[in-house]
Amino acid sequence: MGLDIGGSASRARLRGDGHDVIDVEGPGANVATLESGLVDERLSSLLSPFGAMHPEACCAGAAGAEVPAARRRLEALLERMLPGCRLSVVHDARLVLAAAGLDAGIALVAGTGSVAYGRTPDGREAQRGGWGWMIGDDGSGAWITREAAREVMRRVDSGAQLGALGEALLRACGVADARQMIAALHAMREPMQWAALALAVFETASTDGGAADIVERAAASLSQLAREVEHALGDDGPVALAGGLLLNQPNLEFAVRERLAMRCIRLEEPPVEGALRLAAGLLRR
Prior knowledge:
Largest sheet: 5 strands, mixed
Number of strands: 10
Strand content: 15-25%
């Protein structure tokens, strides 16, 4: 079994001896930012379709797993849910390299959050970013929405027009004015809610200079993460681009590629396939 437990969504993939594959999806369950009870509830719901099936090995790639206490909580939870299973918990960015068929390289992920993770042929690792949406995750969907809201409020404070960006963000929030937008944003408790509003920035980037600047700054932040991992490891890639934001916003992907001298490849397989491949490796030990 492979598990990809992300900030916005989670996915489980089970492959049996007959090579039949069962896929299920559910909401995100970041083990570092969500309450333990909520993570338990969401993972229990995610795994419930598998019923009485018990995998021999499971690799779980989880957002927040770089936090030792969060990793231990998830390990304990999965040990209870999957008794007798060979288990490995890794940071979710590790899945990207495995899904791309790479033993070494750099994974650059931008979705709800953002992170760069690198691994060398001799097993050395480095990570940059992935601090969580309240502190960092520069270039991510949640960050883009926060920067957009800041830009809109600067316009309001200076008496300027809201512009295309402001109007789009108000519509996305379902409110009539900027003050109501702030209240609506503060009522959103999960980063995936913020990240979902980032589309307003990309929709207006061609007509609003502020929106275009946010996209450029996002690309600069993401490429800087990858370069810092490259410098830390002394390894020049390749860079596997992943994450719902980076892979589904062509302007952002193009701007990131322009800034990176390293070879970039798009992740074609879902990260959960990387978890499945790492789980298969547990059986060979």
